[in-house]
Design brief:
Elements: H1 2-21, H2 29-40, H3 45-55, H4 59-68, E1 80-85, H5 88-92, H6 95-106, E2 119-124, E3 136-138, E4 141-143, H7 151-163
Parallel strand pairs: 1-2
Antiparallel strand pairs: 1-3, 3-4
Bound molecules: FE2/S2 (inorganic) cluster.
């Protein structure tokens, strides 16, 4: 636990250093939030409060921005973050069906993480692999049309690997 706390302290220090180095704080909130998410992996209330204090802006403003942009997350991502592409090419080729099968199988919604911390779901815009549409990313792995027909099988594979 002590180790965890030390790590967390260092993370906060890194974020504070980033904020301190910004000359003009007006309009810098989005990049500070990106930095925070990069360091911590997500932006829970504790971090939003810290950013508001350090930037001398109301917490409501920070919260408003975090909840407005889908690429900011308030919950920790799963060990295997799943991103379903909902760009036009993928959408036309059935991305919604793929997304629904992932949601049903895991019992969570977009933006949520499974209780065991293994999976989280995000919906993205075009990931630049339209030829493979519909496309799903799991961590750094890319799955395209032939594979995503059976998302259950793919997810079972990850679950088995993680549980051993
Ligand atoms: S629309 Fe999905 S990869 Fe381009």
């Amino acid at each position: 636990m002590a180790c965890d706390n030390k790590l967390k302290k260092e993370m906060f220090e890194e974020l504070k250093k980033y904020i301190d180095e910004i000359g003009e704080k007006n309009g810098a909130l989005i990049s500070v939030l990106h930095k925070g998410q990069e360091i911590f992996g997500y932006l829970p209330q504790e971090i939003q409060e810290f950013i508001a204090k350090e930037m001398n802006i109301p917490i409501a403003k920070v919260y408003g921005v975090v909840s407005f942009y889908h690429f900011f997350s308030m919950t920790p991502k799963g060990k295997h973050p799943i991103s379903v592409c909902m760009g036009t090419a993928c959408y036309v080729r059935g991305a919604e069906k793929v997304l629904n099968s992932v949601k049903n199988y895991l019992g969570i919604d977009v933006g949520e993480t499974t209780e065991d911390g293994l999976f989280s779901i995000d919906a993205l815009r075009c990931v630049g692999a339209c030829g493979l549409a519909p496309v799903v990313l799991i961590g750094k792995d890319v799955y395209g049309k032939e594979q995503v027909k059976d998302m259950k099988k793919i997810l079972e594979k990850y679950r088995k690997e993680s549980v051993g």
